[in-house]
Amino acid sequence: MPGSLRFRLPALFLLGIVLAATVATLIAVRFFQSNTRTHAASELRAESIGIVQLYEQKAAIGRVRLKTLELELGGDRVFWVPVAPGASLLAGPLPELPSSAVPAEALHGATPPAFDFAFGDTHYLGVAQPVTLGQVGAGALVVAERESALRARWLQLFWELALAFGIGIPVAGILILYYSRRIARPLEELASAADEVAAGHYDVAVPERTWGSEVERLATRFHEMTTRLSESEQLSRNFLMSVSHELRTPLTAIRGHVSALREGVFDDEAAQSRSLEVVSEEAMRLERLVGDVLDLAKLDARRFALLREEVDMRALCERAYATFAEEARVRGIEYDLELGEGAVLITDGDRVLQIVTNLLSNALHWTPEGGRVDLGLGVDNGEVAVAVSDTGPGIAPQQEERIFRPFWSGEDGGTGLGLAIARELALALGGRLELHTEPGRGSRFVLVLPLQTQPAA
Questions:
Q1: DSSP string spanning 348-397?
Q2: CA of residue 348 relative to chain centroid, distance
Q3: What does the alpha-carbon distance between residue 164 and residue 153 come to, in Å, rounded to a whole number?
Q4: How many CB atoms lie within 10 A of CB 389?
Q5: DSSP letter assigned to residue 416
Q6: Domains of the chain by range and CATH?
Q7: Taking the model in full, what pTM does it have?
Q8: String of b and e for 317-335 (b: at least 16 CB within 10 Å)?
Q9: Element housing 187 (H / E)
Q10: Are 437 and 400 in contact (CB under 8 A)?
Q11: What is the mean pLDDT of the segment spanning 229-256?
């Protein structure tokens, strides 16, 4: 398909090679032309000097024979240019050129560069060498070579390059097609996988052999993306199931008690009072659930308002500890409070209390009966640390990051919002939430806040 990467990639590579080879061929031919002309001029110059020296020596001893000079020099390549028409000593057997055909300095004892001229219908590259007889300039001897002979030299190179071009391009095309397809195939598979993901199918195969670091990195990131999307979808389903269950349970209780009160099922005032207390407690439970969802949404949207007030951390920890003391007693959990050096922070006390209660609620939730939960407060290096430790099952290394994601509740129910909200609030308050855990031996969550707490922007 012309519009596909499988077609365009090799076509682009092949076009680049063809253009590069064409430019290289033109440059090579042009360079060879110049080199051929320079080399030919050098040969002609050496030949002209030798001929003139030979002639001048023979003329000096009177042994020159004009009628045999044409045979000695080669009349088709050697020409005579006299100083003045009709005054040439060599005018007999050699073709005579007009003085206008050669550089003027050649007739006055100088050695001019090579030049082009035409004799009849034939074009030549010539070199003129002045001839001196008895200290008198007699003219110039021109040794020339036909332009057609020079052209034949570089045309041979051109055809040799064309032959190499004709063989090399198909070979390069085959190699380009082979390797480009190896590159394009995983990209096409990734494109097909992306179509499946767009259709809502996250369990797709990602190519393993990608033949390139960039494509391999893309495949790896795509696999991570599909895994995250699959987990996100699973978390959303879990959240909907959890929230629907969490909402249905108090709503069912409220509806049952309201119906009983309306129908007069409870005769005595004490029973009616207990029923109203249940309705109130379940309504508060609903309010907490809705509040958690709203808090998380506000934190994600960075639309969360924080107060600035003096907060006594010792009093705050005692308050949080007292909230769960009865639950720990009923379940037989050893529940201790260890308050070290206290501190007063300028922060949002309600949100700090929310973090600590979320941590305590999570610790009690995962600690079995007869276990232990500790709440501690300390100050070190300009930071306040509130630690919540438990003897629960601990957290596997691969789950340490997931437990802070919204709606991740493990296998034991719940909405999975407590820890997610706790960490986001800790960051919003300018602190952090640390986790130290060992599978099978419990976990320890530490809220760390700077002594001069400034809510994060």
A1: -HHHHHHHHHHHHHHHHHHSPTT-EEEEEEEEETTEEEEEEEE-S----G
A2: 42
A3: 17
A4: 21
A5: S
A6: 5-152 (3.30.450), 213-300 (1.10.287.130), 309-450 (3.30.565.10)
A7: 0.46
A8: beebbeebeeebeeeebeb
A9: helix 147-198
A10: yes
A11: 71
Q: Which residue type is seen at 10?
A: P
The structure tokens 């006299």 sit at 82
Q: Which residue has the tokens 């100083």?
A: 83
Q: Each residue of 90-113: pLDDT tens digit? A: 445 677 777 777 787 777 767 778
Joined together, the tokens standing for residue 75 give 């009349």
Kindly report which listed range (55-64, 271-280, 364-373, 395-404) carries the lowest average pLDDT score: 55-64
